[in-house]
Amino acid sequence: MRRTVTVPLVAAGAVVSSLALAAPAQAHGYVSAPPSRQALCAQGKVTNCGQIQWEPQSVEGPKGLRSCSGGNAIFAVLDNESKGWPATSVGTSVTFNWVFTARHATANWEYYVGNNRVASFDGGGRQPGATASHTVNLGGYSGRQKILAVWNISDTANAFYSCVDVNVGGGGGPTPTTPPTTPPAPTTPPASTTPPPSTGGTWASGTAYRVGDQVTYNGLTYRCRQPHTAIPGWEPPHVPALWTQV
């Protein structure tokens, strides 16, 4: 007589759920310069930021929002105006640099001061390069301003959000000095199956880096946080999602 073995759906669901939780967050993009709020957190220049300091590229939410967090509760610190965000001193013409760790087909990029859209750049439905730069005219503004930069994806209903604090024609204000929280140590496969991370050497475009690899760049040492192949625009100080300074 044949016997049928039934696996409870609840148990199976629990396994799937645990696997999903273990998967790393997908990388996307953010404004690296002038440093956005998430970039300041990732660089340790603003502290006690929570999860955003490890994944500044992940502020994704529905299109049409006007919040720095993209509606993500885990990134709510980005909406906190009492956090003491340093403002970068700029002129009336400002170039915003995006870094992409996953290049989605793009509808456009938009820039807002309050509810006023001050600039828009067409993406043509194409994938951008590893970086993108947009020069925005802020001639109608002066003093401290919060710029909301939005990357609208063409083939989904979502966008990526970055808030950049600037001081048009003025100083940048103080930078918090509390030391950043040490990130959790990266997990690597057993030494018996994977060669140990390499150390030393100068960062070079075209090189495949593994988690834990260390390089030098402009006299500073950085440790790799995510496996990737380096390309121009992904220099260690520009992509804290990929590198952390040692």
Automatic annotation (TrEMBL):
Residue span(s) of domain Chitin-binding type-3: 200-246
GO cellular component terms, semicolon-separated: extracellular region
Record-linked Pfam families: CBM_5_12, LPMO_10
Top-level taxonomic group: Bacteria
Segments of this protein annotated with the region Disordered: 172-206
Signal peptide: 1-22
GO BP annotations, alphabetical order: carbohydrate metabolic process
Protein keywords: Hydrolase, Signal
Pro residues composition-biased segments: 176-198
Matches recorded under SMART domains: ChtBD3 (SM00495)
GO MF terms held by the record: carbohydrate binding; hydrolase activity, hydrolyzing O-glycosyl compounds
Protein name as it appears in the record: Cellulose-binding protein
Species annotation: Micromonospora rosaria
